[in-house]
């Protein structure tokens, strides 16, 4: 059952419905219908099976609730999202890895094709899967200048799947995405703005949240149906490959991730992170 709360959010009191509370906090502003979904899984919001499942469930719920827009952000000090939880890939249990990858596919489809407008307020570092989530929103506002964002998979000795790559191509174009992906480039906020990976850079989280809300307010006079149809037409070419190839994509990941060379690279990368 939904309960009424007064919630302290970025130093401001707002009237909102409290929808859930765990690794993910979700609040809906009653007046505007805008949801703020805050990832809060210390230390770095890494996306493991349970966290992804919670995010996907929440996205589906918000869709049913017919919210008018969503801000996706982080409750952590300096990380938006560290991407996929690398421990899901290292010495994996094949059944769990299969579930993990399937939930990731579904979560991406839910976010990328959300029926409501979405904004990523990137208030911390956003490598790999974190960058994928940000790129899957309709608009990106990043807090600068000290955080970084990008698809860094090649630096881990792994390969960004086709649908990660296609998402980046849709945002920054083929040529820039190719250089970015092959070099595993992590962009500073300024560089990300220059290349078009983010839409705006703001000096602090409060002003970034305000900017995100302003963007969503653009849709108050736009019919949700017209918005959704337009977004579907625009994004369909990017999602269709995964829709048609979910099993093939999963089979490939299971094989790829269990190969000795990939396991060796991941082990070394995990060690370097621990240091
Ligand atoms: C031929 C092939 C064709 C097609 C290919 C098809 C398929 C390919 C298959 C699969 C592709 C898989 C794709 C994966 C995408 C990903 O998302 S991989 C994840 C990449 N993420 C990263 O590289 C981020 C690494 N982390 C960082 O850079 C920093 O932690 C960060 C800047 C985010 C924060 O820095 P800081 O605040 O200083 O924190 P720490 O570095 O000290 O970290 C704190 C603890 O958290 C642990 N940790 C960090 N990131 C992760 C992570 N992603 N997963 C798990 N754990 C992580 C870190 O080890 C620390 O742990 P400790 O406290 O020491 O125990």
TrEMBL record:
Q: What Pfam families does the annotation carry?
A: ECH_1 (PF00378)
Cell location: Mitochondrion matrix
Record carries keyword Hydrolase: no
User: Can you tell which superkingdom this protein's organism belongs to?
Assistant: Eukaryota
InterPro entries under this entry?
Answer: ClpP/crotonase-like_dom_sf, Enoyl-CoA_hyd/isom_CS, Enoyl-CoA_hydra/iso
* Stretches assigned to coiled coil: none
Q: Which GO terms describe its molecular function?
A: delta(3)-delta(2)-enoyl-CoA isomerase activity
Q: Which PANTHER family match?
A: ENOYL-COA DELTA ISOMERASE 1, MITOCHONDRIAL, ENOYL-COA HYDRATASE-RELATED
What's this protein's name? Enoyl-CoA delta isomerase 1, mitochondrial
């Amino acid at each position: 059952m939904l309960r009424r709360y007064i919630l302290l959010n970025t130093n401001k009191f707002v009237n909102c419905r409290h929808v859930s509370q765990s690794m993910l906090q979700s609040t809906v502003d009653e007046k505007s219908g805008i949801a703020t979904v805050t990832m809060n899984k210390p230390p770095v919001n890494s996306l493991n099976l349970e966290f992804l499942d919670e995010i996907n469930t929440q996205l589906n719920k918000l869709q049913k609730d017919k919210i008018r827009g969503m801000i996706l952000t982080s409750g952590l000090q300096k990380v938006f999202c560290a991407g996929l939880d690398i421990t899901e890939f290292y010495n994996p249990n094949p059944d769990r890895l299969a579930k993990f990858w399937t939930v990731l596919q579904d979560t991406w489809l839910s976010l990328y094709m959300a029926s409501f407008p979405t904004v990523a307020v990137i208030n911390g570092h956003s490598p790999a899967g974190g960058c994928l989530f940000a790129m899957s929103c309709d608009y990106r506002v990043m807090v600068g200048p000290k955080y970084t964002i990008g698809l860094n998979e090649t630096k881990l000795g792994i390969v960004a799947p086709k649908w990660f790559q296609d998402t980046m191509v849709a945002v920054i174009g083929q040529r820039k995405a190719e250089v970015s992906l092959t070099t595993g480039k992590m962009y500073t906020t300024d560089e990300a703005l220059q290349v078009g990976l983010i839409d705006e850079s703001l000096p602090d989280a409060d002003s970034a949240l305000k900017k995100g809300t302003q963007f969503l307010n653009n849709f108050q006079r736009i019919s949700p149906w017209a918005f959704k149809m337009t977004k579907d037409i625009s994004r369909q070419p990017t999602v269709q490959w995964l829709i048609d190839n979910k099993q093939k994509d999963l089979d490939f990941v299971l094989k790829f991730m269990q190969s000795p060379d990939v396991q060796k690279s991941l082990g070394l990368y995990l060690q370097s992170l621990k240091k």
